[in-house]
Amino acid sequence: MIFRRPPLPIIVVIICCLLCTGCWSKVEINERTFITTLYVDKADTPGEIEVTLSMPLPNRLSPEGGGTGKDPYAAVSATAPTIADAIERIQTDLTRKISWGHTRVIVFGQAYAREGIEDTMEWIARQPLFHLSSYVMVANGKAKDVSDLTPVFEETPSDVLREFSTEENLLKTQVLSIFTSDKMNQGFASSMLASKKTKMVSEEGESKKWVSQIGGTIFRQMRMVGTLSADEARAVAWAGQNLDSMTISVRTKKQKASMKLYRMHSDIHVKLQNGEPHFVINLTGRAELNSVIPVLKAEDIVGIKDIEQAANEKVSAHLTQAIQTAKHQGSDILMLGYRLEWRYPQVWKKLRPTWINYVKNDLQFTVNTNINIQFVGSESSF
User: Fold this and answer.
1) Whole-angstrom Cα distance, residue 113 to residue 235?
2) Are 90 and 78 within 8 A, CB to CB?
3) pTM of the predicted model, to two decimals?
4) Which of helix, strand or coil describes residue 322?
5) What are the helix (H) ranges across the chain?
6) Which of 253 and 282 is assigned the larger pLDDT?
7) If we measure between CA atoms, which residue out of 185, 176, 228, 233 comes closest to residue 340?
8) What is the mean pLDDT of the segment spanning 341-370?
9) Are the CB atoms for 228 and 213 separated by under 8 Å?
């Protein structure tokens, strides 16, 4: 009897069939609930935290937009000594398994942030499905109070919070940045949220909750230690290249002007002066005048230069004040230590163990701003 070898395609098909043995631990998608936002607060009971999870409700979603007339999202809360225990209590009352693959926003209450966010960040680090690109924010009061904001322009509150960061209108802080800054003994800044009740035309004049970004927060070693004004937070975002555009108004001796900034860039480098690092922060951007009183003509070069100088001085003052505020708390919110490590690794090796004290007592820096007005604009004559 002569044995004939099967053709190669048949061998490949047989091997593929043997490898496709199925998934023994699969969970159907209709048996999961996808968490979109995690809110963490200090509980009223000492030593406990309150966790709130925001999630969409598939049974209320309609692709045609008809829906049931009810909100297509929900928020569920639980209180426990640890975040893991709180989430387990929430899971006990849910009919679907919690999944973290769609979580994009984390909001901490201010009281919890001031005591430290180490426990939550440690828990996040051990969740394989949790995205390191998720955005982190701090609520002026309780984080839970932000969870029921009215999503006027978006589908859910989680979409609103996510867009706050992706639109780059203020600070954009991600989980990965927090982990790296903590490992390198540096600090970071994040956006601060505030909520209030206001009457909305879109809601037929009813009073609904509106959430705004009112400034920034300063962290050192996973603990909130200070705050920044909205102008200071924008300057920090510009220095971190996380700002897409902004509007600024200034006054000179002759004019009052408003302008929109665009093509905003920053360059941070370090040099040694007398053996000590000195950081130079350069901000550059272009501008378009929105209004000038009295009217400014395009040929008035002196007036344009005066407005540019006033804008440069204002932005430089905001960034300098933000760095000084963080410096007073020993927080390196611009992660200047990275630049030092890249440029002078031996100097960084020496300063790294005491970097917090060095920032607080000996950090030297200079801020330079160069705003160039490209368009003066025109005004109709009557």
Assistant:
1) 23
2) yes
3) 0.86
4) helix
5) 8-19, 83-93, 110-115, 118-125, 157-166, 175-183, 230-239, 301-328, 336-343, 345-351, 355-362
6) 282
7) 185
8) 94
9) no
353: cis peptide before it, omega within 30°?
no
Give me the residues paired with residue 77 across strands: 52
Task: For residue 134, give the nearest of 144, 148, 124 by alpha carbon.
Answer: 124
Q: Between 230-239 and 301-328, two packed helices, what is the crossing angle to 10 degrees?
A: 90
The answer to whether the CB of 271 falls within 8 A of the CB of 347 is no
- Which residue in this structure is represented by tokens 């209590």? 89
Residue 13 CB contacts under 8 Å (≥ 6 apart), including other chains = none
Which of the pair, 145 or 2, is modelled with greater confidence? Answer: 145
Round to whole Å and give the CA distance between 68 and 246: 39
What number is the average pLDDT over the span 281-290?
94
- CA 134, 241, 331, 192: dihedral to nearest 10 degrees? -50
For β-strands 276-293 and 365-375, DSSP reports them as: parallel
What distance in Å separates the CA atoms of residue 335 and residue 289, rounded to the nearest whole number?
A: 33
Place of tokens 């992660």: 335
In 171-206, which positions are buried (b, 16+ CB within 10 angstroms) versus exposed (e)? bbbbbebbeebbebbbbbbbbbbebeeeeeeeeeee
Residue-wise pLDDT tens digits, 54-83? 988 876 665 554 555 677 788 899 999 999
Neighbours of 242 (CB within 10 A): 19
- The residue type of 13 is V
